[in-house]
Design a protein that fits this description.
Length: 336
């Protein structure tokens, strides 16, 4: 058994960190390893995913119990900036704090080579391994009937184009650019899935949302079933985020064979290739041009390659990699 510490889960369950915690349960399940939420006698390993004070305390308790601590580094100073009110002013303190948290681990796992590079630049000395947050490719799959179903549900015409994005109402996620792109393509429906409490939303984001054109729809928080329906039924997934440690939603869209347009940012280097598995854009002008070109051309090769990338990040593949990390660090005996 492996303990996946669940302190603070209620605060992150609607975020990427919350999804990553659920994914870890699925990954361990593929390896026939039971995941528990609280310490039980005999558990040798604990996964910690959050950076709240109680998480640091749990790491200390775990070491006293003789457990090995695997600390998942989901957050960086870079992706904390341009998020909620006050985040930029607090970003340096945030960096100091997360370094303190992650150093409580015996092993640190982060989802991409890019985020590993950032962590090492902070001066973290513990072993840092790269392991994707992954995607459930058995759940997120293509569905040829979803396009019509989504339009029927939303009372859209069957011939109308639909573009979606997923994330909090934060500047870093590219919501302002998403709205600006919609203004340039009034004939296309733009749907934003996700929600953030108004008290945490920056003024410039509120202003952009208030001025959004009629072809932009803010769908609010949606469960996994609703998101799958949206990916499967959309004509494209537009993710203009300016900073990520990976982007679980990108993997979900790729798994559903949805054409994906992402910002051309370093986190995607080495695993997402422009005009091969995704389209990469640098600004709103390129986003508009990319959407127009996507609608004109056959994207079957693009989405097929995107699905293959998602399959490389599925639970079974990641389970094998996680066990290998355990073995390398002496957290478990080698499998025969």
């Amino acid at each position: 058994m492996v303990e996946i510490y669940n302190g603070g889960y209620s605060l992150v369950k609607r975020s990427g960190v919350g999804q990553a915690i659920l994914h870890q349960c699925g990954i361990l399940g593929k390896m026939n390893i039971q995941a528990t939420g609280d310490y039980q006698s005999g558990e040798k390993i604990v996964h910690i995913n959050t950076i709240f004070p109680d998480s640091v305390s749990e790491a200390k308790r775990a070491k006293k119990r003789g457990q090995k601590v695997v600390y998942y580094a989901h957050s960086t100073q870079e992706d904390f900036k341009n998020s909620f009110i006050g985040s930029n002013a607090l970003s340096l303190l945030f960096r100091v704090w997360i370094k303190h948290c992650y150093n409580k681990g015996d092993v640190i796992i982060t989802p991409t080579e890019y985020s590993k590079k950032l962590l090492l630049a902070y001066g973290i000395k513990k072993p840092v391994y790269v392991l994707s947050n992954g995607v459930d490719t058995d759940y997120f799959t293509p569905n040829l009937l979803a396009r019509k179903a989504l339009r029927d549900k939303l009372n859209f015409r069957e011939d109308e184009k639909v573009i979606i994005s997923v994330g909090h109402y934060i500047e870093r996620k590219g919501i302002i650019e998403f709205i600006e792109t919609a203004k340039r393509l009034p004939q296309v429906k733009f749907l934003w899935y996700g929600y953030t409490a108004k008290r945490l939303v920056k003024r410039k984001v509120k202003k952009a949302m208030k001025s959004a054109p009629e072809n932009v729809y803010f769908m609010g928080f949606t469960d996994q079933s609703g998101l799958r329906e949206a990916y499967q039924g959309a004509d494209a997934f537009l993710f203009l985020s300016k900073e990520e440690t990976e982007g679980i939603v990108v993997l979900e869209a790729l798994a559903c064979k949805t054409p994906v347009i992402v910002s051309d940012i370093p986190v995607y280097d080495g695993w997402l290739t422009d005009k091969d598995s995704v389209f990469k854009v640098k600004d709103v002008n390129q986003a508009v041009s990319g959407i127009k070109n996507l609608f004109k051309n056959d994207t079957s090769d693009l989405t097929a390659k995107g699905r293959l990338i998602a399959e490389e990040h599925n639970y079974e593949m990641l389970g094998k990699q996680l066990l290998h990390i355990y073995e390398l660090e002496g957290l478990t005996e080698k499998q025969s």
